[in-house]
Amino acid sequence: MVGLDEQPEISGGRPGSVRVHRSACLKAEDRPDFEQVLDQALDSSRIRQALRHTEEDIDAERLRARALRARFSIAATAIGEYRYYVHLRTSSGQPAGSDSVGRGLLGALAVLTPALGGVAAVVFLLLGYGLHAVNARYPLADGLVTAGWVSAAVAALAAVLGLTGVLVSAMRNRAADYAVRPSDPSSDHPSDAAPRAGHATALDPAVTEARDAWRQALLERGVVPYLLRQLGHTGADEAVVPTATPTSSPSPSP
What we know:
Elements: E1 9-10, E2 20-21, H1 22-25, H2 31-42, H3 45-53, H4 60-69, H5 71-75, H6 79-91, H7 98-134, H8 139-179, H9 205-230
Antiparallel strand pairs: 1-2
């Protein structure tokens, strides 16, 4: 039997149903969002109670692993909201993960520049003063000493700038996390709060609103019904892949 991760397409399994490629249901950069929604559902009182009373031989970790393997079929239950979110995100010039890539490059430069500058300064100074000790009038010695002190100054400046950048990034991330924190994080029901932490921040309210709508639909129509079915709750609402998908993105509400 072919596993869900190897299935190139997903369909509702009914005549006339639209076959949806799995990449259209959940892109790789949005998997962290899926995992957050999954963890939120697993931490809810409804799922915890179902785990305690299930007759299936399964625990939370195994249930989570099953849901991750079935992530594409689960995500297909909210494909309309997801396509709209991706459309807005792309149109607004906020591709997922771009900020983290930029911060990673700057972080690497902030570490490498002072280190390389410091090594160069040590090498130049040792060679320069070493030549001075052998022959005080050796012309190359003065150039090496000068290069060593210049490298040391560059390394010190790069270290200061790198530390400043790290502090500024930390402050921005903390402010962004606070701005998108759910109003009732202590709520125990999966539909009471949708965590907003992730790569889509409040920089574009329309994108954030579309992302929240997708996550909520994913939680209520996909993740929770799937978990309940895995726990033997046959009366759980069946989440079915839609038989038709919108040909254009829905218009934002006025």
